[in-house]
Specification:
globular, 74% helix
Length: 442
Amino acid sequence: MPRPSVSPAIPKAPRTDWPVLLLGGLAAFSAYFAMYAFRKPIAAASFAGVDFHPLGLDYKSALIIAQVLGYALSKLIGIRVIAQFGRTGRARAIALLIGTAWLALVGFALLPPAWGLFCLFLNGLPLGMIWGLVFSYVEGRRVSELLGSMLCASFILSSGLVKSVATLMLHNGVSEQWMPAATGILFVPLLALALWQLERLPPPSPADEAERAPRVPMDKAARSALLRENAVPLALLVTGYVLLTAIRDFRDNFAAELWQALGYGGSAAIYSESELPVTIAALAGLAALMLVRSNLRALLAIHALIVLGAAMLGLGTLAFQAGLLAPLPWMILTGTGLYLAYTPFNAMLFDRMIAALGRAGNAGFLIYVADASGYGGSVALLLWRNFATPGLAWLPFYIGWAYATAVILAALTIGSALSFIHRARSEKATAGITGSAARLSA
């Protein structure tokens, strides 16, 4: 009788070095926080005095579209680059990319308005690589949900705080053209300290790799196989992410116009007041996913959080229109729902998906597949706003898309969850048949 097979032993988990890991998570947060100071100050300005309207667009919309196009192209390039980058030279690459983006902002201040579009395109082009490089420091760990939550907090909180700083600079006499470059330079010390600390973060341990699958560079064949084998759930998830990215970017880039319509125009503090509660509420729930050890159950729990976020976005907007919510609570509630649905795509969702599939790879590749599609949706929404509904005010336009996103996103996410459940049941049934055959042959 053949000897029974023995499953490979999972390495005993070493004692978690919490101070080192938490410093690493804080460094990841700080690095991406600093990056936003080179990307988002433009949203605090109105450029109402610029008499330049390319293709009939208002100047600010044209600038944001140019920046997002550069960012989206960067995501397309990143599908290959981030997947193959590895662990060497990441901090140096981040510093070089952000430095290039800052030089583009200097060019924006010095050159005529028509050249400003090209400068904003060049500004967005290198910055789209930063997320994948920073996330590679924290993925593939048993505490990746906690570290990923800290990282994701950066793009919720930093956007509001950076716009607050930018607004204060405008109030203190800095011109709209120089304000973006001046805001960015303030955050260089924070960026340098964060990159130094990230380089001190140890790689995932053998126990991390046993539980979450090894994180390695992926060549073209590995990338194609991953997409082919998971085509249905990925198509559903990425389509939902396109809608989320479009409305999230619209809310972020035109926050000044939305707050003006809600009666809070000119307030520098309102950006931080609205986004700090959103950060705490959205990411506390996401960090709790670390407690779910089963990768499949965690993956399904993330789907449930996305559906919950969609419900908060849609029902919160309905309550606002019914007069049950004041403007600030409405923006906090719907912002929480929006980011509860949006942030998993940038960290936890694909990290757990790779772990549940049990194959070597990296989540950065899937994040960039989603991002490249998502920012295309962001550009499409801005073009639709300017050409298909030019007379519609900012607030009604946002409300309409909030409803559409909530309904469609919930349906797509439920479909993706059912796909993963069906696959798990099929694999379990196949394993049962194989086990029975092996026992009979023995």
